[in-house]
Amino acid sequence: MRTPIIAGNWKMNTTYDEAMDLVEELVDGLEGRDVEEIDIVLCPPALWLFPAAEYVEDTGLLLGAQNCHATDRGAFTGEISAAMLTDQCSYVIVGHSERRQHFGETDEIVAGKVAAALRHGLRPIVCVGEGLAERDAGATDAVIARQVSAAFAPVEDGHVAECVVAYEPIWAIGSGRAADGVEANRVAGLIRGTLGEQFGAARAAQIRIQYGGSVTDANIAEFIGQPEIDGALVGGASLKAETFIQLCTIAAGKAGA
Ligand code: PGA
């Protein structure tokens, strides 16, 4: 009932040529694969969204941005608003831990971005996740519940199902040390439970929850096979066409199974 969703977060990688080559390889490579049952979202750097949109047109592949500003326009040098992204994108990642860590994004700022995305018809991929110290201190559940409640505070009932949550433990990102599938499923269940308190269990059951953090074609099956996990937010492995194609193929196979 929930369509699995695999999103590739390219982060601040690729030149223009590399980006176009990668999109082309993904379009060609995924064409012959049986991946219609899942949503595949590419999130290249914002500059490449325009040219990438031409490549993915009519392919079924979707585009997402990696960030947006909470305000629609104004004196925010260097920023990109959700309003500016709507022509190219269907999704936007918000509150990634790298943005929380390096750019001072608070729960309140993230909530503002979620609201902006929904206001402009974009589906937010809301990232939450605990740091290693928080996990070691046994604070994981409290941190996740706080981040989820804050991010969804401005969300109206009618928009809930458009949102995606990515559970990304910070210690698992880019480390090659993915979380355990069962534990990731437990936290995804906690996220759904927290959303259920705000919107009711039926609504919460419609939200897709991804796992993110060192996902590759070698471990995607462990996550997509979990009942509460509906896909993955993929960083490093989304930059290698062959790996990402294989990862999506495995995810689609599990979805259809
Ligand atoms: P990773 O990144 O797959 O390279 O660990 C995931 C992410 O940051 O979204």
TrEMBL record:
Keyword check for Ribonucleoprotein, yes or no. Answer: no
- Major place of localization? cytoplasm
Listed InterPro entries? Aldolase_TIM, TIM_sf, TrioseP_Isoase_bac/euk, Triosephosphate_isomerase, Triosephosphate_isomerase_AS
Q: What is its EC number?
A: 5.3.1.1
Q: What reaction is this protein's catalytic activity?
A: D-glyceraldehyde 3-phosphate = dihydroxyacetone phosphate
From the UniProt record, give the pathway where this protein acts: Carbohydrate degradation; glycolysis; D-glyceraldehyde 3-phosphate from glycerone phosphate: step 1/1; Carbohydrate biosynthesis; gluconeogenesis
- Name the positions where substrate binds: 9-11, 174, 214, 235-236
Q: What is one cellular component GO term in this UniProt entry?
A: cytosol
Q: Name one Pfam family in it.
A: TIM
State the active site: 96 (electrophile), 168 (proton acceptor)
The places in or outside the cell where this protein is found are: Cytoplasm
Assigned keywords, A-Z: Cytoplasm, Gluconeogenesis, Glycolysis, Isomerase
UniProt GO MF annotations: triose-phosphate isomerase activity
Q: A GO biological process this protein is involved in?
A: glyceraldehyde-3-phosphate biosynthetic process
The cross-references to PANTHER family, in alphabetical order and at most eight, read: TRIOSEPHOSPHATE ISOMERASE
What family is this? Answer: Belongs to the triosephosphate isomerase family.
Quaternary structure and interacting proteins, as annotated:
Homodimer.
Briefly state the protein's biological role: Involved in the gluconeogenesis. Catalyzes stereospecifically the conversion of dihydroxyacetone phosphate (DHAP) to D-glyceraldehyde-3-phosphate (G3P).
- Note the HAMAP family from the entry: TIM_B (MF_00147_B)
UniProt protein name: Triosephosphate isomerase
Organism equals: uncultured Thermomicrobiales bacterium
